[in-house]
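#struct-pred

JT: dropping the chains for the assembly here, can someone run the whole complex?
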Amino acid sequence: MKKILLLGASGSIGTQCMDVVSHHRNDFTIIGLSIGYNIAKLKECLALFPEVQRVCVAQEKDCLALRTQYPSIQFSYGEDGLSELCAWSEYDLLVNAVVGFRGLRPTLTAITHDKDVALANKESLVVGGSLIKQALREHQSTLYPIDSEHSAIFQCLRGNEAHAVDRLIITASGGSFRDRTREELAQVSVQDALHHPNWQMGARITIDSATMMNKGFEVIEAHYLFDVPFDRIETLLHRESLIHSMVQFQDDAILAQMGTPDMRLPIQYALYYPERHKIYGSEPLDFKHLSALHFQAMDFDRYPLLRLAYEVGERGGNGGAILNSADEQAVAHFLKGHISFLEIEQVIFEAIAKLPFIAHPSLTDLLDSDAAARHFVDEYVERI
Amino acid sequence: MKKILLLGASGSIGTQCMDVVSHHRNDFTIIGLSIGYNIAKLKECLALFPEVQRVCVAQEKDCLALRTQYPSIQFSYGEDGLSELCAWSEYDLLVNAVVGFRGLRPTLTAITHDKDVALANKESLVVGGSLIKQALREHQSTLYPIDSEHSAIFQCLRGNEAHAVDRLIITASGGSFRDRTREELAQVSVQDALHHPNWQMGARITIDSATMMNKGFEVIEAHYLFDVPFDRIETLLHRESLIHSMVQFQDDAILAQMGTPDMRLPIQYALYYPERHKIYGSEPLDFKHLSALHFQAMDFDRYPLLRLAYEVGERGGNGGAILNSADEQAVAHFLKGHISFLEIEQVIFEAIAKLPFIAHPSLTDLLDSDAAARHFVDEYVERI
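RK: done, full complex below.
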């Protein structure tokens, strides 16, 4: 019985993680969880998983109210509460599905307490990759990726030696504007941008898919997860999003992991590793009704933020923090109609060019860089 | 340093095996080999690999002549010579690239002498699958597949547990007549049949690709190699022959092995297993210039011999011996213009229907079934 601590239970990954656990109750139990502001959802979770012993929420007032309603559960709140929860000795695996920069500290805390981490929080590696690698070297902890691309690579690497790898090939759908030229991008609306061709996702990641910033983050994550240098991480346009990613080995053999998009697969793979089990109600890819898979070389002129992510990743330091935070803030301004689609790129390039570079940042430096980049973007947006 | 015994050195697989070994002389040495009638080629091999200590040829007269020319090498001849060579204690790995039914005894001999076998000889498993499985259970020997489909599956299975496998998916190019209807097949010429869309191969295997008999043999081989029941081995039309085969796991994850067709990859993979190394002069698959991969459901009405292979495989016994030998003989008659393309199928179906079934055949029974099927086909051809 694996005891799970689930952070970010109300989000899409959190919800699907609970779905997986609820179908494998003999193998997993959720003993702790965090939820931000959605207290109604939290109550549903507690009804579903009465074995939960500790809960962290965002606000003190929710925490206080919950303490009286659930006297047998230990409640905490805020970022300190989250880190404290991750330092708990009772759990076996942290599933970190927190969204945003505040997911980094919990990841670091779990690793430094020798806990395994199933990671859905992109910022942990994009912002804090070098700190996490350092912590992993010093502790008995294993990192399992929870997203389709990195889980695909993790599956392809299985049983192979690290030095047998020639390159990683990360596939990209191309996002909502893949069939438009850069000239056409000048005029696109928020409405257009939020319409992803292959699936429904949150607003930020849908925009990050359209700018290919998201793929850039995945390249940086892959670098830290699999210890592969940036010049051996390729990106490839693949419209159907059925090949989730690939690994090319020294002997030119390529292994590709494919399937119907279903986030429960990478979640369950991380939870059960090294075992594989049926996924309740999943639909296998049916080649009989799939006529073709398409590929197209990545176009870095079309997607300059992807090229920027390679450069930022290569340089290291606090670049990931600036990149992530400038992007998050720029996308927020775009969604509010403050800036145009192409201005998202402009302001991020400016932030990377103008903000001071720190080669070996501490966690505090990363926090400061995050705040500085947000501030920079706000000022930039006000100016134009 | 792995000491290799190479049977069938003059054929395509044998030649490519020597190419692989010649580029990795610190890791492999060929200490023994067999060649049928091509004595000129044998002399080239001996010049390339002066470390060869034993050689088997087809005919006594060649054997006698060679003994005087190469006094330091031990020569033998014929099928007994071949089996004797495989009983030699000195080698580490048998590479069996013999063509045809006479490849079975050497495989069995090697296994019963606890030697590992890299198997390119299809008939070993198609005809003698159950005998080989029995021998493998009783001896310390590992079988490595040398052909692109089974090597692909072997690579996809790597690091995964056998019970995690849901199904194998073997890809098929469709052969030279894939774009013709069955009606059109009545009129096709030998010339047409020998023109494979994706590569150049020997005459029999090219015809076997067009009838899909070859894919049927591969299904039977896969059953014995990977212990997967026939109803969980699928075949899928894939025109480009770039995905060499796939494995679908219990969690619906599919791993596919892809690459530019190059037989040196499965050869080197078998020789070096579990290591992977660069292949001299190989060309990696370039997705930037590959626009699409196509798939189409297998059509068993279009390819009745494939359906027959499933039935014969499922029933076991001496069926594989009859199937293989009837096919070999029928293809020979087709190539000589004695029968039409569709009559290849007819005579094989007749042979399976009419010849006596033996549920638990000995090696002698298999030899007899092989001869009986050849004889049956000859008589059938004379009648029509």
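JT: nice. Chain A is about 45% helix and 15% strand. The mean pLDDT of chain A is 96.
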